[in-house]
Amino acid sequence: MGLYTKENTGNWGLGIEVAIKEYFPSELCVRQSGTVQPTRGEFQVPFEEGLERFLKEAKQLEKFRDYPNIVTCRDLFRANGTAYTIMEYVQGLPLSTLLERRESSGEPLAEQELLDLILPLLSGLQTVHDAGVCHRDIKPSNI
Predict the structure, then answer these.
(1) Are residues 87 and 22 in the same domain?
(2) Residue 66 catalytic?
(3) Catalytic residue among 75, 116, 130, 137
């Protein structure tokens, strides 16, 4: 998911489905023997800076636990040379897939469908922005 992450889903041991987001900027690092590490020495600083941003953003999400229209971060931890967030799994299609399917079928979204999608998104973003947090990865594949 996104430029800096990979995402999987699974059962987190409590009978709830979660999304597991891993910090893994593939243009900067590789996985060797189960450990994530920069591919070259010159990538060490950008990798570490990105890792700290990933951790900071996940910690900021904690403020919004169980708030409507904002995905909940359940846990955050470092392991294997990288970091992971355990997030609420939201069932459904990414907006990018929905738009592609509708475009290929010649059925663009109607005004009310767009409003039904956008208004909750804007509500969540307003809450986040009011708290002084800037979401840096807003795109159809993340909605």
Answers:
(1) yes
(2) no
(3) 137
